[in-house]
Amino acid sequence: MFDAQWLLNVMPHRYPFLLVDRILEAEDGRAVGLKNVTLNEPFFQGHFPGQPIMPGVLIVEAMAQVASALLYRAPEYSRTTGLFAGIDQTRFRRPVVPGDQLRIETELLKKRGPIVRCRARAWVGDELAAEGVLTFAMSARRDGPASTPPQSVT
To answer: Does 53 map to a domain?
Structure first.
């Protein structure tokens, strides 16, 4: 398991845009992370008053952050930032509301130089909440957090 301090050391995101609370595993081309969805999230003030629902774009961002946690462990990507190059086959299956815990599972599909594709699924309990294929362009990091010692993702 990778704790919150590991996330802060590896991820370039900070509050309110760090959307992952914990990485449970990140190895062998696979990563699993958790996002505890609470009513205190700033986006619930406007999405939607009286019926809070986590915006789909933020669910996709949380899935991308879990995938990034895996990628940043690879030697070739340890000093990069993953930028979206594509979001494909994305579907939202159920609303995500305060009190839910998203279990996000990602798997590496393909690496070709700076371009990486991952499949991501977000679950609430045993219900699929969202899924998609995420493509990243890995860009050199200008400053900010440095990765932990690199380890292979394949």
So the answer is: yes
Active site residue 47: yes
- The per-residue pLDDT string of the chain (154 residues; one tens digit each, 9 = 90 and over) reads 788 888 888 888 888 899 999 999 999 999 999 999 999 999 999 999 899 999 999 999 999 999 999 999 999 998 999 999 999 999 999 999 999 999 999 999 999 999 999 999 999 999 999 999 999 999 998 765 554 444 444 4
Q: Which of the residues 47, 94, 121, 141 is marked catalytic? A: 47
User: Model-level pTM greater than 0.85?
Assistant: yes
> How would you list the strands of the sheet with 101-112, edge to edge?
22-27, 30-36, 101-112, 115-124, 127-140, 80-92
Is 147 a member of any domain? no
Residue 153 is assigned to a structural domain of this protein: no
Give the structural domain span for 106.
4-140
